[in-house]
Amino acid sequence: MRSSKSELLKVYEALLESYGKQNWWPVDEEYHRKAGSDPREEIVIGAILTQNTSWKNVEKALENLKRENLLSFEGVLKTPLEKLQELVRPSGYYRQKARRLKEVAKALSPIDKVRTIPREELLKVKGIGKETADAVLLYAGNRLFFVIDAYTKRIVSRVWGMEGSYEELRKWFEANLPKDLEVYKEFHALLDEHAKRFCKKTPVCEGCPVRNICIFAQKIKYNYQGI
Ligand code: SF4
Fold first, then answer.
1. What's the CA-to-centroid distance between 210 and ligand 1, angstroms?
2. Taking phi first (over 0 means left), then psi (-120 to 50 degrees means alpha), and beta for anything else, what does residue 206 get?
3. What is the pLDDT of residues 21-36, one digit of tens each?
4. pTM of this prediction?
5. In angstroms, what is the span from residue 133 Cα to ligand 1's centroid?
6. pLDDT tens for residues 166-184?
7. Which domain holds residue 47?
8. How far apart (Å, rounded) are the C-alpha atoms in residues 215 and 156?
9. Is position 102 within any domain?
């Protein structure tokens, strides 16, 4: 495996320099100030709604919940299932997601539990897979779990020529990154941004900010300039 701590950080720094801070996870602080709710609950709700859909669709569902003043665990728990399904419909799989929202709101109430709940316990909640669990623990719980998604897998496979299971890749990032919450949060967001801008299904290697580190790019013999 061709990788090292410094190389991983080099990629992080190059992406940060190119795209700037992503400030994930996006939450509507003003809404929560007015409603007296906890923004961490929006992160958890968003993490469920974003399963198998784009963020644009999630935003529509979040707007529906906000309009009804229901963007909180309390709101999710007190809303009849059928109404909740209608409100989250724009995010797709709405029947399943409405049920999952109720499960997770129950499991993580009060929200401070997100700071202490063992990962294994969170994974037992229906509808919470590894990616959702780690997003919740990192962004809502401020805990050092690196989130792996399909974009991350694609980039790791191209840049380092490395394939692995979810757990193998998570542990690899965690072993090679500084124990710094901001780096964890930003890096995951930057990798997603990178997958959308350059490292698409069909990669656009020309102009890519990490092309001189990338094994895939070296294979296709681009003319690089250093980063
Ligand atoms: S050089 Fe190409 S394959 Fe490598 S990270 Fe950039 S876009 Fe992806």
1. 7
2. beta
3. 999 999 999 999 999 9
4. 0.94
5. 28
6. 999 999 999 999 999 999 9
7. 37-140
8. 10
9. yes
